[in-house]
């Protein structure tokens, strides 16, 4: 993933405060998951989701943030702003287009008209309880879910991923954060996003310009699924920091400092199209995105234990009752493989002429350590930075698409321009369902 833009949501005041408001009660949409020990032996865990939302002055309905500017009265500095601004419960369906069409299913609409104008995109986090995120140790486990991307066109990203967020959303570490996981606070990812409005219990007010602040919020990230109907990739992103961390300056890895920050923004991606098989994924392809499908990701350890070193990350698909192994690489100087491993990453980076910052920050070994305490995130978004070209088109766009690693999908480079995709596909959506975590080969039918 090259950039995740929180400001892709155009709802004017979509920003997290750190106090708790009193206008609307919070009611989390239910999203139960299953925990499996063997095939046919699964139990249901009652989980739910929380998202980001509106913030306002604690003494009324005045917005703390509008358009791209902070309210100077409520927010003269970060600490004061956190004390002055509150968040209330959310109307998930009406305001954000987040619904649960059936038990264990979550639908995220792309554009939702509401009383405040419209909301574009959404992001939710899985909760174990009313006040704590559900933590996952993925080592020696597999993670499985069903997804329908048939209504998700070029330029959009329906993402399922894990981030090394605090279990309580940051309440215990940061005194300025009173809202915690219940209200969807404490976000971080490997892009160290600087558009997040509140970080470490303080507003990101300082040097705020063009929707970006002085600080970013960093943590390791495992992208299980970044996809639309034309392209998909799964990508580990290790970091040198081992928990949600506020960055500034070079540590954020912005611009020319991309390969000097605390996180690996590029990661080590496996995109079947980019890896040489252009007929594997898409409408009518081997994995047919015109129909729902099951995605299985396995985290293999060297010694077969839940604490062992991460050896590889494997992918399977299940569709129409058939188990489909991930496609194999068809790239010169990359050994044929259909999984992510240290050797694959080394060869891929060399073949594509990419900076192997993945290795610099510890590679698979570091990623494995960070997979022990992850929070599940589900989202749909469009890309204001590079139009999702890194996922489904040619990237860089001015490079020769015949050069290894440049072509990543069949999409037109302009298809993901936010103004275009929001106008032409406001009714786009993604549905995630049947989420399972369990022992290897326990969550999907045998081949």
From TrEMBL:
Coiled-coil spans in chain: none
Lineage, uppermost ranks: Eukaryota, Fungi, Dikarya, Ascomycota, Pezizomycotina
EC number: 3.2.1.-
A UniProt-annotated Pfam family: Glyco_hydro_7
Any single GO BP term: cellulose catabolic process
Family membership noted in the UniProt record: Belongs to the glycosyl hydrolase 7 (cellulase C) family.
Keywords per UniProt: Carbohydrate metabolism, Cellulose degradation, Glycosidase, Hydrolase, Polysaccharide degradation, Signal
Gene3D superfamilies per record: Glycoside hydrolase, family 7, domain
Transmembrane segments: none
Catalytic activity: Hydrolysis of (1->4)-beta-D-glucosidic linkages in cellulose and cellotetraose, releasing cellobiose from the non-reducing ends of the chains
UniProt source species: Parathielavia appendiculata
Record InterPro entries: ConA-like_dom_sf (IPR013320), Glyco_hydro_7 (IPR001722), Glyco_hydro_7_sf (IPR037019)
First and last residue of the signal peptide: 1-17
GO molecular function per UniProt: cellulose 1,4-beta-cellobiosidase activity
Protein name: Glucanase
